[in-house]
Amino acid sequence: MKQRIYKLVVILAIFSVFNLGAVRAENGYNLWLRYMPIENGQLRQAYQHQLASIVVCNQSPTINAALKELINGINLMIGKVPNVSSITGNAAIDFKTNRLVLAKLDQPAIAAQFSTVELRQIGQEGYLIKTVRQNRVPQILIAANTDIGLLYGSFHLLKLMQTHQSLQALNIQQWPRLKLRILDHWDNLNGTVERGYAGYSLWNWQTLPGIIQKRYIDYARANASIGINGAVLNNVNASVKSLTKEYLIKTAALAKAFKPYGIKVYLTAKFSAPKELGHLKTADPLDPAVIKWWKDKVAEIYHYIPNFGGFLVKASSEGQPGPGDYGRTHADGANMMAAALKPYGGIVMWRTFVYENKKGADRAKQGYDEFKPLDGKFDENVLLQAKYGPIDFQPREAFNPLFGAMPHTHMMMEFQITQEYFGFATHLVYLGSLFQEYLRKDTYQKGPGTTIAKVLEERVNPGTDDNNRLTGIAGVANIGTDVNWCGHPFGQANWYAFGRFAWNPMASADSIAADWLKMTFTNDPGFVNPIKKLMLGSREVAVNYMTPLGLSHLMKFALHYGPGPWSKSAEVYHHADSVGIGLDRTVTGSDAVSQYAPALASKYSNLKTTPLNLILWFHHIGWDQKIATGETMWNSLVHYYYQGVKQVAAMQQIWQSMKGKIDEDRFNYVTQLLKQQHLEAKWWRNGCVLYFQQYSKRPLPKDCKEPGKAYWNYPTFKPDLPFPYHLDDQ
């Protein structure tokens, strides 16, 4: 019977539509799981010999998923289906004939191949891949303590093949540094996606629970391949309908489909649900009726979704209801919900994104002001989910001071993978560089070297073991119904990079980009090396033509697309006047510097020691004042904007030199996108430079040509910037 089951798995793998039906079209649907045929004959023969057969120990939906992936990937890459056999219980493994062994470490023969330290360190989700020799016959072992570890290890082996690595002497030990690695989908029940630029929501609520689209499984596969283990299905600006029986049954269908791939589902819970759904007069977190309502609702959720992960909550922010409506603290609200979830192992992820609760205060200070006094007052199954910066996912801002100020609270990073402030899905911006920059920021929480990565990995309660410590990271997804998932082909790299950094916050943006390029396009170094360099610099290019030197929030109000430094919402951030530009956050201004550790506060208070890329974040600088570039503030600002446009032009030239190295469809699409990005970079440059010039009243540097005003309409101080289809080439 078991042999028949495995034969079925083999057949399903061979005829997988995800890989066979779409791979030739190269429309991007396959993401980094293309499994293209290996053209290097020597390498292909080596793989054929090493992977001629697979033995699987025991069986489960997750192990079957791993086996299916291995068979499918190996077959597509080397043109040969490996023989598959299985053993059960403690049956002996024949190391004389089996080439690839997939087994848990409760198999004595497998455990004997590894040290005690290796076995202990990988935990519940890690894995070991090792080439061993028995009777001079090399064997590749994929071993783990759990089924999901075996799935992660299988994807790692396939990545090695996709990137043309040798399998001769493997000795790989991998485990996730963070327990929760979650995608936040800002998806609405009507199918729209807030800040989504890749089509509509993946979740077709109308046809759930009856129809489980193949795309749901492919989504789960892609996430499992990079170690993502959770998905928040609905928008942070939540509808209470998500908590109704009708939608819980639909959510349960997705949870069941995702379970073999190790992905738990979470829901954003609207704080006012007891009033809107329960018809109570209040949602006060200390009211006994409210407490009972949440307990009953959580019991109902777990009845339908036994592996439910918990709640994400946006409360007392941007008009959303919250405990502040009743004079209660964030801790009061979070702990009430956490108490309802705790018996089931559920958690609360409570967002720290709050502002304008104190009118006129520096927005960069408000999250800290509300949450710092509550350090240590949150229950053990609560995490505070804080954005990487204190404002709002800006192209660059100072890191969020909360990461250095909450040593007794579980902290969770929130990145934005969707490009709300990076030109939507039009601009090529590799966010791996941004993820790396912030994760390596030193908070000085416990002295030098206390990076944000270390803060995220830290045990709040030293007595807890690795399996129970609560650590995490979240990324606002950039995924939609577009055929290539992310709109821009290079947007896929940001989804991929987030997963890799979630697994290991100290990973390298460089190596991640290289792996993604090889798996997504080609292993040709003539393509990989120059395009990797282009990717690594692309975030800085966008900063240059959007918000250089520490400027922030210059985008058009509400939509956040295109320049809008003239809006009132932007003026409070750049403070441009006849004297200079920038927001004084030292003791003579808002004193936001005092929220950082003393060493950093001192560094940021002094213009000479403030990093050049943050000087306008912390200081108001005169137009004629010399800065570290050696030029005046005005000339430097203008040069950065013009440099950004030139850099996009250079990106276009590099891309054009790649013609013929990859498939024509994706090459042509990226060509068009880069052309559009160049137009929009000039849109940004012209709008910002001409607007700020009205304050500086200085001429442009001699090497910067005047923008083509003939194509624009610039009323004094309030330029109306149309979409730049008719920009000149200046």
Walk me through what this model shows.
Belongs to the glycosyl hydrolase 67 family. Residues 31-157 form the Alpha glucuronidase N-terminal domain. Homodimer. Keywords: Carbohydrate metabolism, Glycosidase, Hydrolase, Polysaccharide degradation, Xylan degradation. Its EC number is 3.2.1.131. This protein has 730 residues and is α/β, with parallel strands linked by helices. The protein folds into 3 domains: 2-174, Chitobiase/beta-hexosaminidase domain 2-like (Chitobiase, domain 2, 2-Layer Sandwich), CATH 3.30.379; 180-508, TIM Barrel, CATH 3.20.20.80; 541-583 and 620-711, Alpha-d-glucuronidase, C-terminal Domain (Alpha-Beta Complex), CATH 3.90.1330. The chain is 38% helix and 11% strand. It contains 23 helices and 16 strands. The protein has an 8-stranded parallel β-barrel with strand order 7-8-9-10-11-12-13-14. It has a 6-stranded mixed sheet with strand order 2-1-3-5-4-6. The protein has a two-stranded antiparallel sheet with strand order 15-16. Strand 10, helix 12 (330-341) and strand 11 (347-351) form a beta-alpha-beta unit. The longest helix is centred in the last third of the chain and has 33 residues, at 664-696. The chain is globular, with a radius of gyration of 27 Å. The termini are far apart. The model is unreliable at 16-23, 710-720 and 725-730 (pLDDT under 50).
